[in-house]
Amino acid sequence: MLFGENNEYGLAQEGFGLKVVKLGENGATIDDVLVHDAHAEDHTLQMKLALMNNEQGFPIALGIIRDVESPTYEACVEQQIEDVKGKASYHNFTELLETNDIWEVK
Length: 106
Description:
3-stranded antiparallel beta sheet
């Protein structure tokens, strides 16, 4: 992840965060610069990129930050509903009333 007019800066790992390094200064080399993988299942680095802002001296990340196959929220909710329906011992109101003990008030 190089940036700058001549790609002289890069993003490097610093503890659990990111830092900007200038190649050739303070021993920083191209090997210190992170490589971005938009298809990585672990989204930790991708989230760090999305949260960078220029006020902290970081570049603004543009382009595809994360590209992984996963179900949509709507599909997950629909699947949950179908799972619950399949496990239910009743399927309508009459069956619901008949699932418990019934008594008659006189």
